[in-house]
From TrEMBL:
InterPro entries: AraC-bd_2 (IPR035418), AraC_XylS_family_regulators (IPR050204), Homeodomain-like_sf (IPR009057), HTH_AraC (IPR018060), Tscrpt_reg_AraC-type_HTH (IPR020449). One of its GO terms (molecular function) is sequence-specific DNA binding. The keyword Transcription regulation applies. Residues 217-318 form the HTH araC/xylS-type domain. It comes from Rhizobium glycinendophyticum. Keywords: DNA-binding, Transcription, Transcription regulation. SUPFAM superfamilies: Homeodomain-like. This is AraC family transcriptional regulator. It holds the Pfam family HTH_18. PANTHER family: ARAC SUBFAMILY (PTHR46796:SF6), HTH-TYPE TRANSCRIPTIONAL ACTIVATOR RHAS-RELATED (PTHR46796).
């Protein structure tokens, strides 16, 4: 099961009539119907941010409603959702006759195949991360674990999961397929660790593979957001991760790659998207190269040819022929 790649997408009550319409717009985006029970106050300020990438979907909701109902997924998506407060509020969710209360940043696991009744003791920020049930079940090795329950906030695995989800949502652009798959893998792995996993999952923890993966994904996210900066370097990535440059090289080496190779790939794919964009139809290729972080035209042409097997001008021409 694959989720659509989109985002980041955001909407606030300033853009629509009120809280009811905000939830309606959000529901259309993710495939759920919402009934808001405290919509009579115009003082409620609400907004949401959402990003979706193949095997993971993350949403941050600010304000909105203290009590609402959510329908089953209209698109038939069979997902597991982990919802947790970011402002210290208590969450009270009820699904399939099971009532769960999460306090102090703890999470509630619920699913998209049954209606949900939800309320909070006060408004604030809430994050919800949706993952494919089938994939998560295969990692955990126990389908019964994916029923409504509370995950404590003091779990190291859940803390990593929550931080990873916030990093995912902070991406400035929708991830490409490769990064989308990586994000889904890491969030599912961390969620499985927080829920309790089979022997394969425990071995990953003991080998520190998961921590390495989280650091790698954080580095990838940083590169994606700052690829257009010509000063982007291993040293800057290391500073962001709080590691030495040699440690960063080791993290990438475990993935059979290097920071420089990833930076070049991200920049080339960014340039390709600009070449496809009708808004840049008349832009000079040299200007696009510099806009994407390349410091020389020759380096850009070499990287583009290595990645796509043709020159940028040939790539642009082939796209125009297809469009015409």
């Amino acid at each position: 099961m694959k989720l659509p790649i989109h985002g980041p997408y955001s909407l606030t009550c300033d853009d629509v009539l009120g809280v009811d319409e905000l939830y309606e717009a959000y529901g259309k985006l993710i495939g759920h119907g919402y009934v808001v029970h405290d919509h009579n106050s115009r003082d409620h300020v609400g907004e949401f941010e959402n990003i979706s990438a193949l095997e993971a979907c993350a949403t941050r909701f600010q304000g909105g409603s203290r009590r609402f109902d959510m329908s089953v997924n209209h698109h038939g998506l069979d997902l597991v959702i982990l919802s947790f407060g970011l402002s210290g509020q208590a969450l009270l969710y009820q699904q399939n006759g099971v009532e769960c209360v999460a306090r102090n940043g703890s999470a509630i696991l619920h699913t998209t195949d049954a209606p949900l009744q939800a309320q909070v003791d006060r408004l604030g920020e809430i994050m919800a991360v949706a993952l494919p049930r089938e994939k998560l079940s295969s990692i955990i090795g126990d389908k019964d674990a994916l029923t409504p329950r509370v995950l404590p906030a003091n779990s190291a695995a859940f803390s990593l999961f929550a931080g990873h989800a916030r990093t995912f949502l902070s991406l400035g652009i929708a991830p490409d397929i490769g990064l989308a798959q990586l994000v889904g893998d890491q969030l599912c792995d961390l969620a499985a660790l927080a829920l309790g996993v089979n022997s394969r999952g425990r071995e990953k923890v003991m080998s520190a593979e998961t921590l390495n993966d989280v650091r790698y994904n954080k580095a990838i996210n940083y590169i994606t957001r700052h690829a257009s900066d010509q000063m982007l370097s291993e040293k800057e990535i290391a500073r962001q991760l709080g590691l030495s440059t040699s440690s960063v090289r080791q993290i990438f080496a475990r993935k059979q790659t290097t920071p420089a190779r990833i930076i070049r790939t991200v920049r080339v794919e960014m340039a390709a998207r600009l070449l496809l964009d009708s808004k840049h139809r008349s832009s000079k290729i040299v200007s696009l190269a510099f806009d994407c972080g390349f410091q020389s035209v020759s380096a850009f042409y070499e990287a583009f040819r290595d990645h796509y097997g043709m020159q940028p001008s040939e790539f642009r021409a082939s796209v125009r022929q297809t469009q015409d």
